[in-house]
Design a protein that fits this description.
The complex is a heterodimer of chains A (about 100) and B (about 240).
Chain A lengths: L5 H13 L16 H8 L4 H6 L20 H24 L8
Chain B lengths: L9 H25 L5 H14 L4 E3 L3 E3 L4 H8 L1 H19 L7 H24 L7 H32 L14 H34 L16 H7 L1
Antiparallel strand pairs in B: 1-2
The chains are: A mainly alpha (about 100), B mainly alpha (about 240).
């Protein structure tokens, strides 16, 4: 699994290492504003949105950061890389299950 | 483009989950039949690539941000059904573990980013590529244009789903219940960001990614080797 696509795995590793560049853009993506941001901009939070916004409480690394470790850019960068590594391990692990069901 | 929970009414979000279940079923069956065992790591790397590429937020003037996805790169390498699976896995992990994109909204997000984008991008790629070889520069350009169009198709779907909420769901006092801006504004804002910034970045990343795969693993990209044909282009050329 590792040897045949060694260069692709290495490229993925470099991309993971570079992910903190994505932290330089600090603006919230369109339509992904928090309820706090909405309250500030609109003066209210839409009723239905407020009801469902916190539907999922299980995110262990919210916003690709380690909770409580976001004080400086360096802290956020470490959290971001840790998140990328954990995310990649999970995504690769789940996708590799297909190796058990495909042919040859 | 990851719709959070609360932005879509349950009447919108739940049917999208219902729509995705059979799509995932078909995709898994297609992949089981067509993907080779040795291609599975490529799908895993591709899904992980998509996961990490979505972490590279690009600053949008005016205080917003956007990002590329990588879905068309996967579609070109392994086909649109495999791309749907890879990107869906990335999106589900992003929602569950990192709170990026909603859980109720997971169907809509997987439809926009994991189905519309790879399929539209792949169709455009095939149409422009025509009979050209998978390793030709024409194919790379076709993939870049496919990536641009695919990302923007996904952004348009997201914007329309957003905008529809404003017109369909209002509280008794007339305030919006879910997404809070009219269709025109949602489409304009989403499309400007993706047509001008994220789309070109998606095209460049797709071209660079394919260029890298072409160099390191040309057999992944050349079209199906003819029965009597020469396998692997670079090796074939060198052997002569």
């Amino acid at each position: 699994m590792m040897r045949e696509y060694k260069k692709l795995w290495m490229a993925l590793g470099i991309i993971i290492f570079l992910t903190p560049l994505g932290l330089l853009a600090t603006g919230t993506a369109y339509g992904e504003w928090s309820t706090d941001e909405l309250a500030e901009v609109l003066g209210f939070v839409p009723g239905g949105l407020a009801r469902f916004a916190d539907f999922w409480q299980g995110a262990l690394l919210p916003d690709y950061g380690i909770p409580g470790m976001t004080a400086t850019f360096m802290h956020s960068a470490v959290g971001y890389i840790v998140s990328a590594v954990i995310g990649v391990v999970l995504v690769v692990g789940i996708t590799m299950l297909f190796a058990k069901v495909v042919k040859d | 483009m990851h719709i959070p929970d609360g932005y879509l009414s349950p009447q919108t979000a739940i049917p999208f989950i219902g729509l995705m279940v059979p799509i995932w079923g078909v995709a898994v069956n297609k992949v089981k039949k067509t993907l080779k065992k040795r291609e599975v790591p490529v799908l895993a790397i591709g899904a992980a690539f998509s996961f990490t590429i979505m972490m590279f937020n690009l600053p949008v003037p005016g205080g917003s941000s956007a990002h590329a996805v990588g879905a068309v790169l996967l579609a070109v390498l392994l086909g649109p059904w495999a791309a749907s699976i890879g990107v869906s896995i990335a999106l589900i992990i992003q929602a569950l573990v990192f709170g990026d994109g909603g859980i109720l909204a997971i169907g809509a997000n997987c439809f926009n980013i994991g189905v519309v984008m790879p399929f539209v991008g792949y169709w455009v790629y095939r149409w422009i590529k025509g009979q050209a070889d998978g390793l030709s520069s024409r194919a790379i350009v076709a993939a870049a244009i496919g990536a641009y169009v695919g990302l923007n198709a996904a952004a348009l779907c997201t914007a329309v789903e957003f905008g529809a909420q404003y017109h369909l769901f209002q509280a008794v006092d007339g305030t919006p219940l879910y997404f809070m801006y009219p269709m025109k504004m949602a489409v304009a804002a989403m499309m400007i960001e993706h047509l001008v910034l994220a789309g070109p970045v998606e095209a460049i990343i797709t071209a660079l990614g394919l260029g890298f795969v072409a160099k390191t693993h040309p057999t992944l990209m050349s079209d199906k080797v003819p029965v009597n044909g020469n396998p692997g282009h670079s090796e074939g050329v060198m052997a002569k």
